Amino acid sequence: MTVFYKKAMIGLLLSIVALVGTACSSAETSNKQTSVKLIQDESVPYIGFLLDTLEEERWYKDKQLFEDHVKSLGGQVKTLAANGSDAVQLMQAQLLIEEGVDVLVVVPHNAEEGAKIVELAHKHKVKVISYDRLITKSDLDYYISFDNKKVGVLQATEIVKNTPKGNFVYIGGAETDNNAVLFRDGALSVLQPLIDKGDITLLADQYTEEWNPKNAENNMKAILTKSNNKVDAVVAANDGTAGGVINALSDVGLAGKVPVSGQDAELDGVKRLVAGTQTMTVYKPIPVIATQAAEMAYQVAKDKPITTDTTINNQKIDVPTILLEPMPVTKETIKSTIVKDGYLTEEEIYRK
């Protein structure tokens, strides 16, 4: 590869990063020729929020709630989304560090690759909070999330309640996302004793590359073909993968007949609860995690002590952690959970 070609490729990638950052930032456009904090008052915390993607509905809610709460506390915030690229996410971290952020809050695209962000940030004395997804194999400063093993437990428990015996399928998330591993661990803690008893046969146990619903749909189609459509229940890791699974079931006339779990209480997923094609979702109150993470980041930026309630080992250290409680949602509990919290409205859910 020629030096010219290398320089051209680097220049192109940097241009992409700048464009992505401009599109996804909540702050006003900064002068990239000056590596200084966007505001001159050093007493005002400047917080960077790095998202893996904005291609899934839920992350827009996190973004808006997090930004609003940081601003209400008196801080400034800039959000950048990497659209599923580890290289872009690392470069976005570099950009924010050069602009003078006091702390980075990161939803990593890849749990292990996120360690490079932590290493880079620490070289510049910037602390890192891992948001919802754990950054592994790093000296991460803090982690805030929901009890993700419990998410898997809730999913499998509800499906088993509906279908206590038969041929089950597990459709997980991206194997590179530590949360996906935890969801699976939680689900199998419920399913494995029933597998051992012979009540359940696990036909397939499969991760879904990039959490892509189309990949989940294709995987489910292959499982249906191989089993001659003899599938009785599906534990799917989130509402996106559930949607892909239900599309595959629909093609063979099984949508609404085979119980399917989900997670995130996305509008499409909740509408499927109403329609009867999806059995349950797991609601992780986004206002709770977004506001608590904003408060944590603000306190870290101000060098104030942080109170956590547990630690999680990230394969390198025990990370100070705050874990929040998820809750199951079925067709019968939509109004008493997500509607009551104002997460979604009845008009949005029941509108035809």
TrEMBL record:
CDD domains linked to this entry: PBP1_ABC_xylose_binding (cd19991)
Keyword Signal tagged: yes
Subcellular location: Cell envelope
InterPro entries according to UniProt: Bact_Solute-Bind_Prot2 (IPR050555), Peripla_BP_I (IPR028082), SBP_2_dom (IPR025997)
Endpoints of the signal sequence: 1-27
Periplasmic binding protein domain sequence ranges: 47-304
Cross-referenced Pfam families: Peripla_BP_4 (PF13407)
Keywords: Signal
Protein name per the record: Substrate-binding domain-containing protein
Taxonomic placement: Bacteria, Bacillati, Bacillota, Bacilli, Bacillales
